[in-house]
Design a protein that fits this description.
Blueprint: E1 38-40, E2 45-50, E3 60-66, E4 75-78, E5 82-89, E6 92-96, E7 99-103, E8 108-111, E9 117-121, E10 127-134, H1 139-152, H2 163-170, E11 172-175, H3 178-186
Antiparallel strand pairs: 1-2, 2-3, 3-10, 4-11, 5-8, 5-10, 6-7, 6-9
């Protein structure tokens, strides 16, 4: 089963990482549907919408486009943040502890810190979710991972140099041995 390409955003200007809290004093801020830094992690895209510095560290917001029938990551655990996945389109599957759940547009799935979990596109069409990360900071893991993938020309996250150390720094731990079982059980692919 082949995966589809993750749509890329066309950037007309260079991206500058926000460094201060957005308080509205400079006027309204609207992020258009093609705005924001984008990273292609092969199994999932990451469109950065709100960063730690902008929200005073309270939360960050990313959008994840996920190709059809694609596992996003091996089973993993976050020690520092909770994640809330709001489905915009498609069908998201998730393993939360021992429970498998499915979510459709308008559903919100809570993935608390210190719970082993993973998620995937459970359908034959693209899936897009908004991921609210609280407290903020983990969006920098995605940025560093995307930068490392691009620099090393890695074909998958597994080929990224220094991945275990990067995970340790952000308090995220992976069970890569879960990939084959999850793909078989749920009819998924994972870019390798």
């Amino acid at each position: 089963m082949a995966t589809t390409q993750i749509p890329q955003l066309e950037h007309t200007q260079s991206f500058q990482l926000p460094s201060s809290h957005f308080d509205g004093s400079t006027g309204p801020r609207i992020i258009g549907p093609r705005d924001g830094k984008f990273a292609d992690l092969k199994s999932v895209g990451v469109r950065f919408m709100s960063w730690c510095a902008e929200t005073g560290g309270n939360f960050s917001l990313v959008q994840h486009p996920i190709p059809p029938r694609t596992l996003v990551a091996p089973i993993h655990l976050h020690t520092r943040e909770d994640e809330y996945s709001y489905v915009l389109e498609g069908r998201m599957g998730a393993l939360l502890g021992d429970d498998v759940v499915y979510a459709e547009p308008g559903d919100l799935v809570f993935k608390p810190r210190n719970q082993w979990h993973t998620f995937w596109n459970a359908g034959d069409a693209p899936c897009r979710i908004l991921e609210i990360i609280s407290s903020a900071g983990f969006e920098h893991f995605f940025k560093e991972l995307g930068d490392r993938m691009a620099e090393s020309k890695a074909a998958s996250v597994a080929e990224v140099p220094g991945l275990p150390e990067l995970g340790d720094r952000y308090g995220i731990y992976f069970r890569p041995e879960s990939i084959a079982r999850l793909c078989e059980e749920h009819g998924l692919v994972y870019p390798a």
